[in-house]
Amino acid sequence: MYYKILTSISVLVFSAWLWAAPSTISIVPEPKQTIVSKGVFSLNNQTKISYDSDKSKPTATMFWQTIAPVTGYQQPITQRSVVGKNHIHFQLDSTLTTPESYQLSVSVEQVRIRAADVAGLFYGMQSLLQLLPPDIYANHPINQLSWDIPAVEINDQPRFSYRGMHLDVSRHFFNVDFIKSYIDWLAFHKLNVFQWHLTDDQGWRIEIKTYPKLTEVGSIRNQTVLGHTYDYQPLFDTTAVKGFYTQAQIKDVVAYAAARHVMVIPEIDIPGHSTAILAAYPELGCSGKRPVVEDNFGIFEAVLCPTEQTFAFLQQVYQEVATLFPAPYIHVGGDEVIKKQWLASPFVQQLMQELQLTSTEQVQSYFIGRVSNIVTALGKKMIGWDEILEGGLAPNALVTSWRGEDGGVAAATLGHQVIMSPYQFVYFDAYQSLSQREPKAIHGLTTLKDVYLYEPIPAQLPASQHHLVLGAQGALWTEYIKTPQQAQYMLFPRIAAFAEGVWSQPAQRNWSLFTQKLPLLFARYQAQNIHYALSHLVPDIAIKQVNSGQSQLTIANQLDGQIQVKLTNETLDHIYSEPLLVDSNKQVVSVSARLFAPKLGLYSLPVQVSFAHHKAVGKPITLKYPAQSDGLQKLNDGIFAFDQFYRADNFAIFYDSDLEAVIDLENKTSFHQIVMGIDAGRHRQLHPPIAISVWVSNDKQNWQRVTQLNASEINGPLLSFAVGKQIARYVKVHAVNAKNSTDPQIPKLPLYIDEIAIF
After folding, report:
1. Is 336 annotated in the active site?
2. Main-chain phi, psi angles of 225, to 5 degrees
3. How far is C-alpha 91 from the geometric centre of its chain's CA atoms?
4. Residue 602: which of 644, 553, 560, 555 has the closest Cα?
């Protein structure tokens, strides 16, 4: 996903620069305190590895198992209380009282890791490994003369006790080897919770012995949507997606994670997101129909019915789940429940009367309350997405706040513990840059810097309730992530930015310092064959419309490097040094830019923006039917979206209504052409208008139609059409929405328009 300078010289320079001096300290996440001394400790074939007790032995052993395949050294591991020269010693220390804290002391003579508990000892080991050259992670022999560790004193402890990452294995299934690698990556970044999203509409992925059809039927879907789930004309492949984890495999994964101090929390998502359940056991639904396992993505009407049969089913399922997962928590989902089938169900209506429930939100609260009782009786605590707040929150429930911060604040105000996971900052299925070369993602933009700057404690939360925020959790949903390589690309390096936000103290967090640590971090990723993204290198292009029909281009970059720019019809890049003025009053102009980072020897992905200082830019515009949010200004800001990946905030959006816009050119103006953006440039296929007409007037009373297009003449993403030579003050554009949506996920059909350019 990036361009390499494939010369031996650049590779040598890159490697030498990465590890130019043994005093380099580059640990992610940033420790609480680091004091650098002179000199190095040289790890060699005479170095002894020791530990003080049986509790510290597993960490010492894991350290040896990491370095032995690379160094070729066969150090004996011994228990001892007195440590001499050329020792690496692991020790539990009762004087350290903060959970998961550690002290790492490296001198010329020896290395000591002291910790409050075995988790702290493990995290001290992770920091020690990051002090070694990056090749220590290679897992195969490296012919290196020395393995030097810079002398340093590190005192460290986590900011939050809950530092989590989520993985969705329902939409696309990932095998046990990948799951173990995922856990390794969490441990590398000192994250300690893995939320395993095991069930959803598109597949049930956990063996339940009492209900074998859950995997016999619910784990298989016959096909998967191609493109995007909300495309105008979605297509499907013909490949079945299947797979599940046996209970033996789950026990193996849980044990593997525990050895790395990662707690595994299972998520069994109910009462919505349950199509796979109902495909196996339709009697648990309200509709009386058997659905098929969903081959599309999104939110669906299938929902569990709140019957005693359903709760008996869930009792058995959660009982088997509780046996497999020793974690004190079970996540029950509770999100995105469409309640249409409840409203249509005579049983649910009768239940509402009996329980004096006045809304389906209260039905959901009743449902979640019953499930909470099941989970509590099993000795576990229930976690749910923030929708479980609707209709009343079950006692002792924890809330994962994903739709923003409001859910977390509301839950904390009620005295409940919360886990912050706002999609705007920590959902890693979003795009990482504005480059069209980025692989298909669900939607939205979450850059590396966005993740890094996220603060888990909401600003509006009173200090007296800060303790209720256990921490934060990143999420990797896999609707559009099919392969391990793509999962890595979406995860790295954003997981590092997230880890620093939940481990490091606020005073130690510094974006500039973090970016300086990235080259060494990338070298460690490379040694582990991790396919990471370089999206943070992509430049930002800002367009400002100025007088005389010109546009001003300002291009910024996050890191040092050389920005190369190319305009429409140019064949060669030129070096950007200052803002550019571009004549753009006669046609749509495109500019592309990319960054060359000399220290990495790499080009960034290219980014492109199209613009025009056309005759309607900034002119007064009125709408007969309002656009969503601030969409009005998108119609004539001079910046187009036809060559961008889909972002809702790039468009004026009209739900179940037409675009009828009147533009006041303020004076009688000559023009002959109109250009409209009606679609995104990549990864989405938006619903086009079914007819467009253009009218002109000089008094806003008497209108003359100058052109009309039917559906066959409307082709995006950029629609350009002549209107003859016109001289008029007012221009009215009417684009007709197809309306009448046949997709239950889109009850009101949207019409997207991103620009009305007049030339």
Report:
1. yes
2. -60, 140
3. 37
4. 560
Residue keyed to tokens 């020897």: 601
Written as one string, the DSSP assignment of 695-711 is EEESSSSS-EEEEEEEG
Are the CB atoms for 211 and 247 separated by under 8 Å?
A: no
Do you find a cis peptide bond into 29, omega within 30 degrees of 0? yes
From 336, 361, 390, 660, the catalytic residue: 336
Q: Is 713 helix (H, G, I), strand (E, B) or coil?
A: helix
Beta strand 241-242 with 263-270 is unpaired
d(CA 324, CA 258): 13
pLDDT band at 236 (very low <50, low <70, confident <90, very high): very high
Query: Please, where are the H alpha helices in 414-480?
Result: 423-426, 448-453
Q: What are phi and psi of 558, to 5 degrees?
A: -80, -30
pLDDT digits (tens, 9 = 90+) for 282-291: 999 999 999 9
Q: Is the pTM of this model over 0.85?
A: yes
- Are 721 and 658 within 8 A, CB to CB? no
> Hey, what are 281's tokens?
């056991």
Q: How far separated are the first and last CA of the chain, in Å rounded?
A: 38
Are 42 and 152 contacting, i.e. CB atoms less than 8 angstroms apart? no
Q: Within its chain, how far is the Cα of 624 from the centroid? A: 37
Q: What is the mean pLDDT of residues 737-759?
A: 92
Are 332 and 382 in contact by the 8 Å Cβ rule? The answer is yes
CA-based nearest residue to 638, from 582, 688, 685:
582
Neighbours of 453 (CB within 10 A): 13
3-class secondary structure per residue, 625-662: CCCCCCHHHHHCCCECCCCCECCHHHCEEEECCCEEEE
* 244 contacts 215 by C-beta, under 8 angstroms: yes
- Model confidence band, residue 680 (pLDDT cutoffs 50, 70, 90): confident
pLDDT in the model for residue 144: 78
Query: Residue 342's pLDDT is what?
Result: 98
Which uninterrupted H or E stretch holds 461?
none
Q: Which position has the token pair 């980072």?
A: 597
**What domains, with CATH codes, occur in the chain?**
22-156 (3.30.379.10), 162-530 (3.20.20.80), 538-611 (2.60.40), 621-758 (2.60.120.260)
